[in-house]
Design a protein that fits this description.
Blueprint: H1 15-18, H2 29-46, E1 61-65, H3 69-85, E2 94-98, H4 100-115, H5 119-127, H6 137-147, H7 161-201, H8 208-226, H9 237-261, H10 268-285, H11 287-294, H12 300-332, H13 339-366, H14 372-412, H15 415-435, H16 448-476, E3 503-509, E4 512-518, E5 524-529, H17 531-541, H18 561-578, H19 587-599, E6 636-644, E7 658-663, E8 667-669, E9 700-702, E10 709-710, H20 721-729, E11 732-733, H21 737-744, H22 758-766, E12 773-776, H23 782-785, H24 794-801, E13 811-816, H25 826-830, E14 835-840, H26 850-863, E15 866-868, H27 872-875, E16 890-896, E17 902-909, H28 918-926, H29 942-960, H30 973-978, H31 991-996
Parallel strand pairs: 1-2, 1-14, 2-6, 14-17
Antiparallel strand pairs: 3-4, 4-5, 6-7, 6-13, 7-8, 8-9, 10-11, 12-13, 15-16, 16-17
Length: 997
């Protein structure tokens, strides 16, 4: 295994001709893996490593850095230093990083890239701790990391511009996003009021014929989609909702208008109409054919006809009776001030439930004469009807009753109670944000009070938030105050009566309680109306001011309710168009500071020309596809992110709610499971392609075309020959390295893989706690796959808001790789690496190994790869040692792949055993949580930085060195890795010794 850096030289001009060209079209995983192996061979040659070691798999060595923010980055910096000293780093073929591991992975690959030919030699030599006093780039880069260990706000001070920049950027983006969100919700509430005033309060006599027409459309489309007689894309969830559920709901809404204006008195005619519709449904859906299939006697045809007619008649008349019952209930409240709004809120779901019950009766009476899959289909249709009905009921209840509740509570509570309730609402909201699982990438959510806050807090906020918007709309659109009605004659000449000479009467009229105080002459003195009555009266006062062209005048600032609603819609649409969903999140704040710290450290100081005001240099970052270079000598980088699938089609992924998404210099994307790679053969992910037998989608897209910008040479700078070669090769600049690292570390995001919660997603979206990214779907059309993000982001904002992201849209939502696999192990096992060094620095103070166990389980489930590893010594607390100490720092495991090939896993765990350097143990004595301090702590100081770095170096040196010869001195890799032995459990005492103990 000779390794001769001295023989390295810049590649000859024709060397790039042998290097594979950058791809320009989508590919499946088999093609992706083949392209990676070609580059690994070429880059091995640049490092002086044999291109082919005689094994068809190339004896691939993978290095994985786990998530964990700056804690993981600093720990793995020490690991890199140990690997460099032990001459192992040069043999690493794959570098798979997640979240914080990506910080230091980007730092390493950026430095190798910028050093050009021979970059690995300079980096490996310079990383050796013995070189600390040398003037080389790696040591200066480590010093830069130490100086910027507080990378988010480098200058620590309450009055520092760095600190206040965080608040300034967050408040700006939150304000802009809130304008969009508030305008959209206000428009919906105004639409509800407009519908209520124009159809319910004024009793619009909607013809029943429109309702029957809508129900007829729903019946026909139900049958057509059930039989899949329409194109398959219209028979999926979204198509069935548009073609069946929405027409049925429209019919229910129109029926509500009709019965409120003119109650149903005759249930026979509606029963006949509905019976006809059910009969048409049964014929088109093929129910008659199934009966004949089961009954083949001579009279089957006659019996079938009688059955179909009877079932249709019973179903139709049951639904008709239910309509009549709902109509009777509506009339019970007719005349009350709040009746229009109550009926508008409850009526459509009730009418839809009546139709649904008719369908249930139909299915029940058909019995075994319809197949089980049809009953399943109709059951799912009923689920969507329930969702639409419940959503309507919930929204309008909050929109109409929420403002009344706030007004009543505010008037009833004392000042101290108002302050207490307000502070409790704000505190619960803030507590929910802090307790969100995404803040602890890869760690378990704490129980007890914080868990309760995380579950209940978002719903409390959601209720208050919509109610406040409803109250604002109510107060904003109030017409001029109506003069109080005169209750009796007045006499100007009547003498004044003493205050005590009065009488009180209570008059009940239309359900309103009015208290009137009369003076001794019988004239009205004071009138008091209850808040309940006044609120509903205020809702109806707006009737004359609905339409701008019918406004009688006198309104202060608007002409009608319609134009206020249209104004809200216009604001929402304009803001959704101009306020980019990616640009106005916290992503860029996070990314810019990561780039300045980690990618900026990989440049020589003389080459860095930062802006004197912000201290940012755009040239610190570079396109990821520029690593796809014949001169590159580092390991092949895999930057892991999570493709969020909160509403994905694959039922087996309901717990995960995400899939692995990777960024590499060559391809970026995810596996659709439709190739012959065997990577997802047992599960067939199908997260982004045609699940109905269409052409298999290609889930990986060329990185040079992802978020593409055309390459343009600087006009005022002379082009050197090297630059000319780069310009010729990199005709496109794809997604930036800093962006991919920031996406991989986007722990705080509304949609966050297996942590996703709808309520928490809503809360985090409202407060713009969004570090993720919307990227063109690699399995979608080329024009969107190459796009930076959606031009009009309202639909994607709603998907993020309600936690309904999927891979079926033109753009996909990406977040922290730890929301799927926090170890970085998954993609290395997919590639069947023979040797894997896994460095685990996630927050795991209880040593539960949650990230490792999750990765092992998914690798077995998806790839059929069995990983046997004993971590008992890492979790064991040795005798005479503190409770937080382990028995060992590392473990060695065996991998058996589905094709029966084998591999070795070297697992390094951030842990303490008592053999660490004195300063590291001293820091632990000061900070008991070390080395598992919270991932939320991204503000390291020098002692914290140095303790984690030294611990990483110590553990890697202990596990892979410990007196052994370096890997370069071993005859084969198998000799080196085969000689590694993990810690073993202490021998159990003999039975007699155990009894004595």
């Amino acid at each position: 295994m000779e390794y001769d850096f001295g023989a390295m030289y810049p590649p000859a001009p024709n060397q790039s001709a042998d290097f594979p060209p950058a791809p320009n079209q989508s590919a499946d995983f088999l093609k992706v893996f083949d392209e990676e192996l070609q580059r690994i061979k070429a880059w091995r040659k640049n490092r002086g490593i044999p291109e082919n070691d005689g094994d068809p798999r190339l004896d691939l060595i993978g290095l994985a850095f786990s998530g964990g923010g700056i804690r993981s980055a600093t720990f793995n910096l020490g690991v890199l230093q140990a690997l460099a000293k032990l001459e192992i780093l040069r043999y690493v073929d794959y570098l798979s990083t997640v979240s914080g591991g990506g910080y230091i992975g980007g730092w390493l690959t950026g430095m190798i890239h910028r050093l050009g030919a021979g970059g690995m030699k300079e980096v490996e030599d310079g990383l050796d701790p013995g070189e600390v006093n040398k003037d080389n780039l790696p040591q200066k880069a480590i010093a830069h990391l130490r100086a910027f260990s507080n990378y988010l706000t480098p200058k620590v001070s309450a009055l520092s511009a760095d600190t206040w920049s965080l608040f300034s950027i967050w408040s700006r983006n939150t304000l802009l996003n809130l304008v969009t969100l508030v305008a959209g919700i206000a428009a919906l509430i105004l639409f509800g009021r407009l519908v209520g005033l124009t159809s319910m309060v004024t009793k619009w006599p909607a013809a029943l014929g429109w309702s029957w027409a809508a129900f007829a459309v729903a019946a026909v489309t139900l049958a057509l989609t059930l039989r899949v007689w329409l194109p398959r894309k219209y028979c999926k969830d979204s198509g069935v909702q548009r073609l069946v559920v929405l027409p049925a709901f429209a019919g229910a809404l129109l029926m509500t208008f009709a019965v409120y204006a003119c109650p149903i008195t005759d249930w026979v005619l509606p029963g006949i109409v509905l019976s006809v519709l059910f009969f048409v449904l049964q014929l088109l859906a093929g129910f008659w054919g199934w009966f004949l299939h089961h009954h083949q006697n001579k009279g089957a045809l006659v019996l079938d006809g009688l059955l179909q007619l009877s079932v249709a008649a019973v179903s139709g008349f049951v639904a008709s009776w239910l309509f009549y019952a709902v109509s009777f209930g509506v009339q019970h409240f007719n005349g009350l001030a709040f009746a229009p709004w109550l009926v508008l809120t409850v009526g459509p779901p009730a009418m839809l439930a009546a139709v649904s019950l008719g369908v249930i009766v139909n299915v029940g009476l058909m019995g075994r004469d319809i197949p089980d899959d049809t009953r399943e289909w109709l059951g799912r249709l009923g689920a969507w009807a329930m969702i639409y009905g419940a959503g309507w009921l919930l929204f309008f209840s909050v929109a109409f009753l929420g403002p009344l509740g706030l007004k009543a509570g505010w008037s009833a509570f004392a000042n101290w109670a108002k302050a207490t309730v307000t502070l409790a609402w704000v505190g619960t909201t803030m507590g929910s944000l802090l307790a969100a699982k995404g803040a602890k990438t890869g760690s378990d959510q704490g129980g007890g009070t914080m868990n309760l806050v995380a579950l209940a807090g978002p719903w409390v906020f959601l209720l208050g938030f919509v109610s406040l918007i409803g109250l604002g709309v109510h107060e904003l659109t109030l017409g001029p105050p109506m003069p109080p009605p005169a209750t009796g004659p007045t006499s100007a000449s009547a003498p004044a009566a003493p205050a005590l000479a009065s009488a009180t009467a209570k008059v009940t009229q239309s359900g309103s309680t009015i208290t009137v105080t009369f003076d001794s002459q019988g004239g009205p003195k004071k009138e008091e109306v209850s808040l309940w009555c006044r609120y509903w009266d205020e809702m109806q006062v707006q009737i004359p001011y609905i339409w701008p062209w019918k406004n009688p005048g006198g309104i202060s600032w608007y002409k009608g309710l319609l134009d206020v609603m249209l104004l809200a819609v216009a604001i929402a649409l304009l803001m959704a168009w101009r306020v980019d969903i990616n640009e106005f999140s916290l992503h860029h704040f996070y990314k810019n500071r990561l780039v300045r710290c980690y990618l900026g450290a990989s440049r020589e100081r003389k080459d860095r020309h930062a802006n004197p005001f912000t201290n940012f240099d755009l040239d610190d970052d570079f396109p990821l596809n520029h690593l796809d270079d014949p001169n590159f000598s580092g390991p092949f980088p895999i930057i892991n992110a999570t493709l969020n699938l909160s509403s994905g089609r694959n039922l087996a992924w309901q717990e995960r709610k995400g899939a692995s998404f990777i960024f590499t210099p060559v391809y970026s994307g995810y596996d659709t499971g439709r190739d012959d790679s065997g990577t997802s053969n047992s599960r067939r992910m199908r997260v982004g392609g045609d699940a109905d037998g269409g052409p298999p989608p290609a889930g990986y897209y060329p990185t040079q075309l992802v978020a593409k910008t055309e390459y343009k040479a600087e006009p005022d700078e002379p082009e050197t020959p090297a630059d000319a070669g780069a310009a010729a090769r990199f005709t496109n600049d794809g997604i930036m390295m800093g962006t991919t690292v920031a996406i991989s570390g986007a722990a705080a995001n509304p949609n966050q893989g297996y942590h996703t919660s709808t309520a928490v997603a809503f809360l985090m979206s409202v407060f713009d706690v969004r570090l993720g990214w919307w990227l063109g779907n690699p399995a979608g059309p080329d024009r969107t796959a190459s796009s930076n993000g959606p031009t009009f982001g309202l639909g994607y904002t709603l998907a993020e808001l309600f936690g309904t992201t999927s891979a079926d849209s033109a753009f996909v939502n990406l977040s922290d790789g730890g929301h799927f696999d926090n170890m970085g192990l998954y993609e290395l096992v997919r590639r069947k690496c023979r040797y894997i060094i896994l460095c685990d620095a996630e927050q795991d103070g209880d040593l539960h190994f949650g990230g490792l166990s999750t990765a092992i389980r998914m690798c077995r489930t998806d790839f059929g790869a069995k990983i046997d590893i004993n971590v008992s010594q890492l979790a064991r607390k040795p005798d005479n040692k503190p409770e937080s100490f382990s028995g060992c720092h590392y473990a060695i495991g065996d991998i058996t792949y589905a094709n029966k090939t084998t591999g070795r896993l070297v697992y390094l765990k951030s842990s303490l055993t008592g053999d660490e350097p004195a300063d590291v143990l001293g820091y632990h004595n000061q900070v008991a949580q070390f080395p598992h301090e919270s991932t939320a702590d991204q503000w390291f100081d020098e002692s914290q930085f140095e303790s984690y770095r030294a611990l990483g170096y110590h553990i890697a040196d202990k596990a892979l060195g410990d007196g052994r010869a370096p890997l370069s001195a071993a005859k084969t890799k198998q000799d080196f890795f085969g000689a590694l032995k993990g810690c073993v459990d202490p021998p159990k005492p003999a039975p007699d010794q155990a009894e004595q103990q």
